[in-house]
Design goal:
single chain; 39% helix; 14 helices; 12 strands
Length: 358
């Protein structure tokens, strides 16, 4: 899967264990699905997953990893991926914007991306198959980019991987889950919360000022293929200026999150947050305690890759020091009659995971 700030790769096994411990859970809603990493893992365990994200690239990833089933899409996807891998490059919008005007990709790979994306658009593929090949292209491009994993800037010196040749691979498709088919949507999170009734809602909202659209604007343009006007050194889509989420506003976050919680139609909630978010742990605990019993898991977590590298000015000169390299991730489980003893037993194999009283 693509490099992604906020990805829960390291704590996905714990999320799966907690969900599995809730024996009445069959269906799960993920209203902020991102890379669909969590939804994919829960689908593998047999849960009927509804994955949602308001960004087009994330909804595409969810369609591939949650909604599309291996037994239906694998054969067609393998054939198309083989065909696209044989295409010669042809420079177009992507090459001009992200190779010539910026330095995210080497010219040879930009030209291949252009050629493959145009070919996908001309095929008129049905939604699931199109999502699979678009995901294959996103992941192939991600393997040859020259960034730290964010598209707010590109590296001053080329990353070694940028010289590799772009190659599409079949995404890790899963068969249909035992508890029911997965579904993917591109809705506002609150609309998704109001629309779907589930056993468990896994809620992992943005919790600081950084917009995922701004961080991954290249994937949005690659999926939409609307060839938008761009601005700035990073060549962001112009709609990055006005497609704002209240979850990225320190002033509006608490009220927006409260409205989301009120809208959710789920027997249990599993909320992911961290100690650098807009809400203090005790405030979030208080909000959830009004909805049921709360169990809090605390996990020591390495901060995003930019924190490991340091702070640099636009000329590439190091200008500051990072105050800390780790933070704390929290999982708040909320519901009636939670199996506390069973949940504590889950932590024995885990390292750096604690259950807190509050």
């Amino acid at each position: 899967m693509i490099k992604y700030i906020g990805s829960k790769r390291e704590i996905v096994p714990l999320i799966v264990k907690i969900t599995t411990a809730l024996t009445d859970v069959r269906s799960v809603l993920d209203p902020f699905s991102g890379t669909a990493r969590v939804g994919h893992a829960l689908k593998r365990e047999g849960f009927a997953v509804i994955a949602n994200d308001h960004n087009a690239y994330a909804a595409t990833l969810a369609t591939c990893y949650v909604q599309a089933d291996r037994e239906k899409e694998e054969r067609g996807a393998v054939k198309l991926i083989g065909e696209f891998n044989r295409l010669p490059g042809k420079a177009g919008y992507f090459t001009e914007t992200f190779c010539n005007q910026a330095r995210y990709f080497k010219q040879k790979n930009g030209e291949r991306i252009d050629a493959i994306r145009e070919a996908i658009e001309k095929k008129g593929l049905e939604p699931n198959l199109k999502a699979v090949v678009l995901t294959s292209l996103m992941e192939a491009a991600d393997r040859v980019d020259s960034t730290t994993g964010l598209q707010m800037a590109y590296l001053k010196q080329w990353a070694p991987r940028a010289s590799n040749d772009l190659e599409l691979r079949l995404p890790n498709l899963l068969p249909q889950a035992a508890r029911g088919p997965g579904k993917a949507y591109q809705l506002d999170a609150r609309e998704a919360a109001e629309r779907f009734s589930v056993d468990l809602a896994y809620v992992d909202p943005p919790y600081n000022q950084h917009s995922y659209l701004g961080n991954y604007h290249i994937w949005e343009s690659l999926v939409l293929w609307d060839k938008p006007e761009v601005y700035g050194v990073a060549k962001k889509r112009v709609d990055c200026r006005n497609r704002r989420s209240d979850f990225n506003s320190k002033v509006r976050f608490k009220e927006t999150f409260h409205l989301l919680l009120a809208a959710l139609r789920a027997s249990c909630l599993l909320v992911s947050f961290n100690n650098e978010g807009y809400l203090d742990k005790s405030v979030l605990h208080g909000m959830l305690s009004g909805l049921g019993e709360v169990v809090v898991f605390e996990i020591d977590y390495k901060r995003y890759v930019g924190a490991q590298i340091g702070i640099y000015n636009p000329k590439g000169i190091k200008v500051g020091r990072i105050s800390h390299l780790k933070n704390k991730e929290y999982l708040f489980l909320c519901g009636e009659r939670l199996p506390r003893r069973h949940l504590k037993n889950l932590l024995q194999p885990e390292t750096g995971v604690r259950i807190l009283d509050k």
